[in-house]
Design brief:
Elements lengths: L9 E6 L2 E6 L10 H16 L5 E6 L10 H4 L10 H24 L4 E5 L2 E3 L1 H7 L3 E5 L3 E3 L13 H4 L6 H10 L2 E3 H7 L4 E3 L2 H16 L3 H16 L2 H15 L2 H13 L19
Parallel strand pairs: 2-3, 3-4, 4-6, 5-7, 6-9
Antiparallel strand pairs: 1-2, 7-8
Pfam families: ECH_1 (PF00378)
InterPro entries: ClpP/crotonase-like_dom_sf, Ech1-like, Enoyl-CoA_hydra/iso, Enoyl-CoA_hydra_C
Protein name: Enoyl-CoA hydratase
């Protein structure tokens, strides 16, 4: 079970149906080492599969939210110069796809994911937060597509997701130059929902939002996430068609909606069933 696991790069706490994942390598600026790339998607999968929470908050420790990819990852890929060149490049392509999947889990998780960002959000960290549902930051936060400074192209999701969040021209400027985008600019551009004066104030506010989400029907909330993400990648006509199919199967007014009405009549908070846990191995 999730509560019995220990991690090298992060901590996990679940309280009042809200999961809090904390990147916890402050002395290394929470850079994403090999352990991170195994642990992070595993935690998200566990929370999702176990229906362990109704919302996920991801924050960090130390001076910066995350300094991106740990340089040790580049030397740990096990490249073998004796491998035929075509097969070597195919191996690299599959490695990139695997790294991309580590952040795609934030989109495929059934519950909303909220990012609470302070200090630097650099390189791979921007890939990660771009896959979340909502982003919040402190006034000292900054965002940087760092890869061009290293002589490479960002490849784990920033260039694909960021244009869906802010203007294409701004994405290109940030990618071409590698410059830092301030918290104020991130707010003005729509990357973050709100800017807070300090880390403590931000976390309190983000947890209030997460608790409000957790008080809603988890089936209704996951439906919203599914529909919004689908609409982002499809035409209006296709999205409306998918909405009709989704609603015909998921809308059960005698359950969650009736619970809302009954709770209001009885002057109490509604109580909803959790989403059905997913067993990734057992099919029947």
């Amino acid at each position: 079970m999730l509560s019995h696991k220990t991690y090298q790069t992060l901590t996990v706490d679940i309280t009042d149906k809200v999961a809090h994942i904390v990147l916890n390598r402050p002395n290394e600026l929470n850079s994403m080492n090999v352990d991170f790339w195994h642990e992070f998607p595993s935690v998200i999968h566990d929370i999702n599969n176990q229906s362990a929470a109704r919302a996920i908050v991801i924050s960090s420790t130390g001076k910066h939210f995350c300094a991106g990819m740990d340089l040790g990852v580049f030397t740990a890929t096990g490249a073998d110069n004796t491998i035929e060149l075509g097969r070597k490049h195919d191996h690299l392509r599959r490695l990139v796809l695997k790294l991309q999947d580590c952040f795609t889990v934030l989109e495929t998780a059934r519950m909303p994911v909220l990012m609470a960002i302070h200090g630097g959000c650099i390189g791979g960290a921007l890939d990660m937060i771009s896959a979340a549902d909502c982003r919040y930051c402190t006034h000292d936060a900054f965002f940087s597509i760092e890869e061009t400074k290293l002589g490479m192209t960002a490849d784990v999701g920033t260039l694909q997701r960021l244009p869906k969040l802010i203007s294409m021209g701004l994405v290109k400027e940030l990618a071409f130059t590698g410059r830092r985008m301030t918290a104020a600019e991130a707010k003005d551009s729509g990357l973050v929902n709100q800017v807070y004066p300090d880390h403590e104030t931000m976390l309190a506010a983000v947890f209030d939002i997460a608790k409000e989400i957790a008080a809603r029907s988890p089936l209704a909330v996951t439906g919203c996430k599914e529909m919004i993400n689908y609409a982002r990648d499809h035409s209006v006509a296709d999205s409306l068609q998918y909405m009709s199919v989704w609603q015909s199967g998921m809308f059960q007014p005698q359950n969650d909606m009736m619970e809302v009405f009954n709770a209001k009549a009885q002057n109490r908070a509604p109580e909803f069933e959790e989403l059905t846990p997913i067993d990734p191995v057992k099919i029947f």
